[in-house]
Amino acid sequence: MNVDINNPWTWHWGSRYGESLKINIALQGYLAELIESGRLGHIVVDVGSGKSCPIKDVIRDTGARLINVDIAAHENLSNDSQLFIKLDAEKILDANSLEVKEAIKRVSRFLDIDCTKSKDVEPVDTFLLSEIINYIDYQAVIKSGLKWLKPGGRIVIINEPKRGLEDEFSDKGPINNNEVINFLESLGLVIEVADYTNSTANIKIPQALSMMVLVAQKK
Ligand SMILES: C[S@@+](CC[C@H](N)C(=O)[O-])C[C@H]1O[C@@H](n2cnc3c(N)ncnc32)[C@H](O)[C@@H]1O
Fold first, then answer.
1. What are the extents of the domains in the chain?
2. What's the whole-model pTM score?
3. Residue 172: pLDDT band by 50, 70, 90 thresholds?
């Protein structure tokens, strides 16, 4: 693995971050059920995807078309089943920016759907945000992304409010898990699942600050 020490993202991008935890999350509980029953859908967008993550592997194995968006993405890793887009997720706040327009064109080609013309295209079945919301203005990003989510589609968030590279955290990241739930509900999303798990075996973390797997559905 090539690690550029001046760019902290390369640590996450290149490595399988929190692998055993992710394997548990992907293979057990509601998320596994969602994947196995096919309710995760055919078009999944993984925001802050990293390069390889067990959850992503499981999703890809279902045959879903996977669109990975990451600020440090290596776009040449794209193939027929998954697309990698190098993009700062916060850029989607400006739908007219060149980067976003270019990204939408690439997605259109990948999906063989013209996402550039109609304002009403809602192709995405599931948005996955795994260990990314601490680093971005997550409320603004989710609000902007919602227009691409199908009615009945889902947002899956996996996050622990204080876990990660704290120096890189956004001041618009979540203070605690309740804030995330309240925000999604304020957008009219229905919380299907909020599961809590300990990311660190020996330390008991209160529920509002522990690792959370959240599934919210757009009605
Ligand atoms: C903690 S890693 C999580 C990787 C993977 N989703 C996982 O759960 O293992 C955070 C990832 O978010 C990416 N990232 C950080 N800030 C970002 C931003 N503003 N836009 C898009 N990706 C970002 C990093 O490059 C990194 O790959």
1. 9-217
2. 0.95
3. very high
